[in-house]
């Protein structure tokens, strides 16, 4: 009997973010975005983050080809967006086309009006089990007024109404 890792990890609350990247085909840029909760800060010097994506996904293939992406950390008002971008690539296409987002100045990947944002360039990647972990060097960041975060716990989204909404000095 194998361990129930999915069941155990359902008890670990994580933040929710959207990663964006793109592919250029015949002079046309096609953006893509996915919801994920595997974002981790790896290093402050140099500034590195990691995220894990299902191996074989077209999003991962596009990211590895462009070697750049953006991450938008979502607040509690973004649950419906997180749900729309957690679907298959075909189902996400309409939501991506309607995103209120602008290309990031460093990468060209879409940046949402979100809690925080990061633009990353590929530092390294590792195939681990059924996923690929990508390590990105953070080249730009943005932080706006803090709102309660969107969390993922027990297989569903939650709002943490008691989160601090002021910046530390």
Automatic annotation (TrEMBL):
The keyword Cytoplasm does not apply. It comes from the Bacteria. Residues 9-159 form the Flavin reductase like domain. Keywords: Oxidoreductase. The keyword DNA repair does not apply. It holds the Pfam family Flavin_Reduct. This is Flavin reductase family protein.
């Amino acid at each position: 009997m194998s361990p129930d890792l999915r069941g155990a990890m359902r008890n670990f609350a994580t933040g929710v973010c959207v990663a964006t990247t793109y592919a250029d085909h015949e002079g046309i840029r096609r953006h893509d975005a996915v919801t994920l909760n595997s974002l981790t800060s790896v290093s402050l010097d140099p500034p590195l983050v990691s995220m894990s994506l299902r191996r074989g996904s077209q999003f991962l293939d596009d990211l590895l080809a462009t070697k750049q992406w953006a991450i938008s950390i979502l607040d509690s008002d973004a649950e419906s967006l997180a749900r729309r971008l957690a679907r298959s690539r075909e189902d996400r296409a309409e939501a991506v086309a309607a995103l209120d987002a602008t290309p990031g100045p460093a990468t060209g990947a879409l940046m949402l009006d979100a809690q925080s944002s990061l633009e990353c360039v590929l530092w390294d990647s590792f195939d681990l089990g059924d996923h690929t972990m990508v390590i990105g060097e953070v080249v730009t960041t943005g932080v706006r007024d803090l709102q309660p975060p969107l969390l993922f716990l027990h297989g569903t989204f939650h709002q943490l109404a008691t989160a601090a909404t002021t910046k530390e000095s």
